[in-house]
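Subject: Sanity check before I submit

Could someone independently write out the structure tokens for this chain? I want to compare against mine line by line before I put it in a report. The sequence has 314 residues.
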Amino acid sequence: MSTDSRLPKSIRQIAAKLPTEVNSTVRRLAMLSLIGQTVLVVTGGAVRLTSSGLGCPTWPRCTNGSLVNTPEMGIHGFIEFGNRMLTFALAAVAVLTLVYLWNLRKDRRDLFLLALGLLASIPAQAIIGGITVLSNLNPWVVGLHFLVSMSLIVFSTLLVNRAYGRTGRFMTRPLESIPGAMSPVMTAVAFFSAIAVCLGVVVTGAGPHAGDANAPRNDLDWDLVSHIHAVPAYLITAGTLFAVYLVLRKGITGPFRTATLTLLAVTVLQAVIGFTQYYNGIPALLVGAHMLGAALLMSAATNAADVARFSPKR
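---
Independent answer below. Compare away.
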């Protein structure tokens, strides 16, 4: 007897109406997940940069007497509670994705497991967010909260690529061949992107934007860790420029060309924002832009490495 036959009749009736192949709804949900995770990074940055980190001073309630923010809490409570609500919206997207993939859970385990990983990570992210509040915005916990968001962006990017048939076992069209060196180079760029993001968290923990006037800092030398943070950024730039050089020299077209040019654009933009904020007193608006740039960088580097991995080698 199959597993489905043991399910209640009402559930089997619903499952019968779900898609049996990857359709436009699944693709849209995958894209919505990636966009939502990126927006979550931006709103999380807004919480910290507007000193709203303790806008809801407790967890899981917003206050001891209210589940939601109250008018007396002002804009800080609204910003913090809004960021919390976005987590629930992302959980709903992940649940919907799993539902729409139910009939494909065996044939497309790649999609199902990625969606399941996204859903499982969201409650963990919420708990870390709660510990962040209860620890009075401890910079290491805040940093962990951000890093989990970065990992969810990586998963979402892979989910989009698989759902659209760009990479993986179920590619809908063959990729153009690329030089054999490209896959390890792009893997290294993705690795150094992750290192840069981790070091960026340390820089942030030493900087002035704590999320609340009374929040602690990590007491490290901000200028020193900023220079250390720049080292993997230089390696990312070098690896990306090398890839773009080979793409242009070899006349490579298609998804890999697009992926490397996009990665170069994001890398240059992130570098410009980073240097500008460093030499202009770390203004909050540029810090927020740099956080968005980190999310875009992780997605672009993941995409480039993923496309390179599945491209045939010359």
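---
OP: Matches mine. For the report I'm noting this point. The chain has a mean pLDDT of 91.
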